[in-house]
Every structure is written in structure tokens, then in C-alpha cells.
Write a structure and sequence with these properties.
By secondary structure, the chain is mostly helical. It has one domain. It is about 50% helix and about 0% strand. It is built from four helices and no strands. It has helices at about 10, 15-20, 35-50, 60-70. α3 crosses α4. The mean pLDDT is about 95.
């Protein structure tokens, strides 16, 4: 299965995650492909260490996010 923004990466971000990150600095729109792509190197370490999002992601989701970065951020 190819990892893309549309399937499954964007589905991992909840409405709460999206709203919250629009209110902090730097503002990152987790619902927007370009914003997540441009900030992926800031987002990934927080996912990997469990500090983002609240409750953390499971290991498969974290691996998928890393694989998505390494694949060059395919959108679809």
C-alpha cells in the first residue's frame, strides 16, 4: 500500500488536532497538505516521542508518517 496524504495521513489528524495547532505557534494547519508537508520535519519528532497529539499515535501511524516523508510527501 502506498502511503499518501489523502490515504491515510490526513485521516490521522482529528478535528481537535487541527483546531489546536491553528492556535499555537508556529501555526500549522494539520488539515492542509501543504502546511503538513512544509512542517513535517517539525511534526515527526513530536509524533515519535509521543508529545503530539494528546494520547499519541500508534507505532504503525508513526511509521506511515515517516514513510510518507521519505517517499517525498506524495499527495495522492
Amino acid at each position: 500500500m502506498a502511503i499518501t496524504w489523502n490515504d491515510p495521513i490526513k485521516t490521522y489528524f482529528t478535528a481537535y488536532d487541527i483546531t489546536h495547532m491553528k492556535q499555537v505557534q508556529p501555526q500549522i494547519d494539520l488539515g492542509d497538505y501543504t502546511s503538513v508537508k512544509d512542517n513535517a520535519v517539525l511534526i515527526y519528532p513530536r509524533l515519535a516521542d509521543g508529545t503530539m497529539p494528546p494520547g499519541g499515535w500508534n507505532a504503525d501511524w508513526i511509521k506511515n508518517f515517516k514513510d510518507w516523508i521519505e517517499a517525498g510527501y506524495p499527495e495522492s
